[in-house]
Amino acid sequence: MKVAFYAPLKSPDHAVPSGDRQMARLLIAALRLAGHEVDIVSRLRSYLPEPDGDALTRLHAEADAEMERIAGDWAGLAAPGCWFTYHPYYKAPDLIGPLLSRRFDIPYFTAEASHSSRRNQGAWTATQKLVVEAVNHARVNFCFTGRDLAGLAAVAPAARLVKLPPFIDIDPYAEQRPRDNPARLVTVAMMRSGDKFDSYRMLAEALPLLLDLPWTLSVIGDGPRRADVVALFDRVPPQRIAWLGLQAPGQIPALLCQGGLYVWPGCGEAYGLAYLEAQAAGLPVVAQDIAGVPEVVRNGLTGLLTRAGDAGAFSGAIRQLLIAPNERQIMAAAARRFVLDERSLAVAAQLIGGEMECLDVR
Questions:
Q1: Which of 149, 185, 201, 307 has CB 3.0 to 4.6 Å from 143, enough for a Cys bridge?
Q2: Beta strands in the chain (DSSP E)
Q3: Hey, is 161 helix, strand or coil?
Q4: Are 167 and 26 in contact (CB under 8 A)?
């Protein structure tokens, strides 16, 4: 089946890397592994940074023009078998897919759609309504987290909601052999304002409490607030931290496999694919029990999740695994098994393919 794929927040081939772009690419890979032909049907970005009614009106006009372009392309050819939209939410609604899928009578699917009633303000009231309409129209809505599933069930109780746990391409990690450097902490994150900066701040508060132990930290990532992030760690001796900067995706598995423990608070993380990548490399995780992090880390089995906002508890969990090598090694093995066995492209492809097959999509 030919699948028309669309990501209204950020196209899978966008120049700027992000978790959203990575997840879109993983979904495309899973769809292809399930036997489908995938076409990125549009690169229109329907992102609204603020609830601006005039901006939404302009977006609708752009979307109308884009729909006519796509409809014209399909007029001379067979329409695709279905439309698949990744991550429609209040700031980036799908203004194209539901209308075109009705116009050409093809099934419509979503993945990681979300709804939050507290966002009903200004133009976002209208975009939230569009998200609910899309979810109700979809044949299947694939939900990555229990939180997203519950949020959609509350506003679209008749919609078909299917849990699709976050997943990664495990092949680069299965090919690597963890080196198990127990005192090497690792984190991978962009250096930007908002939740990422808040997580760096908590990490910088936690590490000075551990200076009596012989650890080092490798930081993989870069961004517009690099200087501010580095300044946060002024209470940590500089020789303790290696600032590795932005690394090519192909280099990440080897770098992770050289570590012993993945440390990232995870403020506001929808789930965090980096946690899955770290565990696939055999690194137990220390993070907060917050947002979607419990969807990708099994507390007490593949890592330790601490109280939200408690830097002391976060530091204590790192200490616990630094001074208990047997516990850390057991978690390391469990973390690697968890991701390689349960969170692979193959597992996701089987689930997605099964849902499409059972609904007799042609």
A1: 149
A2: 2-6, 37-40, 82-86, 108-111, 140-143, 161-163, 184-188, 216-220, 241-245, 261-263, 285-288, 303-306
A3: strand
A4: yes
